[in-house]
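=== RUN LOG ===
request id: a7f3
mode: sequence -> structure
chains: 1
length: 557
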Amino acid sequence: MPESPTSPPTSPLPGSPTNNATPPSPVSALLRATVLFAAFLALQLVLFKSLLTFPSSRFLPAPRRSNSTWANGAVDDAEECKAGLIYVYDLPPEFNHDLVAHCDRLWPWYSFCPYLSNGGLGRPAAEVPALSAVVPNASMPNWYNTDQFPLEVIVHRRLLSHRCRTIDASLATAFYVPFYAGLDVGSHLWGPNSTVADRDRAGARLLRWLRGQPFFAKSGGWDHFITLGRITWDFRRYGADGWGTNLVLMPGMENVTRLVIEGDRLDPLDVGVPYPTGFHPRRAADVRAWQEHVLSLDRRNLFGFAGAPRSGFPDDFRDVLLEECEDAGSDRCRAVDCRGTRCNDDGAAVMRLFMGSRFCLQPRGDSFTRRSLFDCMVAGAVPVLFWRRTAYDAYRWFLPRGEEGEWSVFIDRRALRVGNVSVRDVLEGYSERRVRRMRERVVEMIPRLVYGSSPDGLGDGMDDALDVALGGVLKRFRHRRWSIGHEAERPPGRLVAGAPPRRGSSKTTTPPTSNGRNGSVIGQRASRHRSTAASSAYIKTVLSEAPASRSKSLQQS
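=== RESULT ===
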């Protein structure tokens, strides 16, 4: 082998073979390079697929279409956004993205990551054998194993792709603050070393950031809204070392509207919205197919109850209901024991129970409301209530007031506890025809109780829970802007005709009932007279800038 002029002379080592190998040919070198490049591409593909299965990435995806006003392209029909445009803040990632990125740290008992996949909807039903056995094949793409606490992620994802989202803040009627407060405080509620400072830190930092935004500073927050994915009491800490965070009571939150799965009925800034269920239809036709399905089911049980006895609660009312179920007999009542995580793991046991029952018992949960109410109604069963605050007073934008007897049964819990009445006797007092009408009324309400999965909504004139909530928020903010303008113009002491009622006013309005214009299959069948007032007609307007209610007790009513 010829030596390089600059290299030292070389000779074979004693006992080593003489190197007579020829250099590799260009063809073999090209083949080796091709194989290495293919292996590199395969590795990149594996990494990319693994990232897709991770719950989340940055929360401001590239818009589908874009111009200087509309984040998601100019709408074809100007009437679609007549109510107003929505501006979504791009918060620092510590307030949303980082919480999801570290989803395995949110819960002390198990990883919350599967429940935050698919934009907060959770794993598809097709991947959960127990759930897929309950849901018919035609509806399978619309069902997910959804937890009860990911509403902040669900709403944020929808609003980022909403047809009325604007990127020009000066044109916005409403400003959305996508802080995942529920995920944040949930990660500090049960940790052995968590402190009050830990629970308050993110909220205080968020409000400090928000006060530096020009449109928040201009309005004081009255045209801003936020989603809280846990009950309001987790954000209202009273005392130096009480439960939860005091986010709602912090300076800066006095005027911010809050969409919360359970609100304080004395605070009009708290707007109760439905808990997420596992049903997330893509379009109106999917809702109608599900409505037809649940109406056609053969329901052999008179009533059912999903819950667990709680030894830590003396004289717990759930024990009374379990006894009522046992006394009625297995041919009339079935109960699902929800101790541990059975009812949270896949939701199949609860859905199977409610889909086989005509009525479902809905006592209060650890607080006044419980997700089970919405699981019951989505399954097409009639809820039986024992506290008004479980439904009637909690979800005024979503459940028709003044017609509670058409879609629910209310039993005096005190009379039931002392044995003056029984659940079986009350429910057997309803005729089959009456029960059928009540079930039809419940099924008719399903669209406004669920969160669709499509960025464009359900379509075909059908509103889901988010559409109802946004309509109410925009109506509230328009009224507020109207009142500011007129209060500035009117002489002292003179009332403006037609002004919206003030907070605390005894004047209330009743939510409209559906007459089929929401696209329901029930509305197509039935011709019962319904009010046709717009959904915004019953929205309670906030005019006062007084701080939120600081009531320190949960009223037992």
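=== NOTES ===
The chain has 19 helices and twelve strands.
The longest strand covers residues 301-307.
=== END ===
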